[in-house]
Amino acid sequence: MELHAISDHLKPNLRILFVGYNPSIRSGETGHHYANPSNRFYRILFQTELTPRLYKPEEDGDLLQLGYGFTNIVSRPTLTAAEITPNEYRVGRIILKEKIQVYRPRVVCFVGKGVYEQYSGRKGINWGVQDDPVLPGLIEYVAPSSSGLVRMKLEEMVAIYKGIKMYVETEGNG
Q: How does pLDDT run across 98-136, given as a tens digit for each residue?
């Protein structure tokens, strides 16, 4: 079975654009973001109260109504991010910057330190908001990968993701 890239979920002025490494094999099979049963993405969003209920991967398009979009730095599905080639990252970085400039989300949340390192070319990244964004005027937020391969405890992930809320809840209040 040949796997294909999955569709981005994008629209102008999103509250948060979530950027992953690339689709999992399961996402490539189903056409939905964060579809691997071991992926904790939707549980994290619910536990941080970014979503009013627990969504399923097949409802990923519905999150656009909440102002949340999805894309990846690389579009090719793989079993692990280790299979992504340097050239795929180089091309993906250019395409991702263009998407961010076109859609201008309030917050760009990189789902994994390695995603942000590939995007920014920087090492030694801390969790949370980055002081010197690659694209000025945007909030670039680094959160843990929600992959089941990541050994971090769910509670630790949720605590880091909760930091995003202050940047999206202030929207429209000024």
A: 999 999 999 999 999 999 999 999 999 999 999 999 999
> Whole-angstrom Cα distance, residue 63 to residue 56?
10
Listed in sequence order, the residues at least 6 apart from 131 whose beta carbon sits closer than 8 Å to its beta carbon are: none
Match 């993906």 to its residue by tokens: 92
* Extended strands (E) in 1-145: 16-20, 68-72, 107-111, 128-129, 139-143
Over the Cα atoms of the chain, what is R_g?
15
Read off the pLDDT of residues 84-104 as tens digits, 9 standing for 90 and up.
999 999 999 999 999 999 999
Beta bridge partners of 108: 17, 140
The span from the CA of 80 to the CA of 104, in Å, is 29
Mean pLDDT, rounded, of the chain: 92
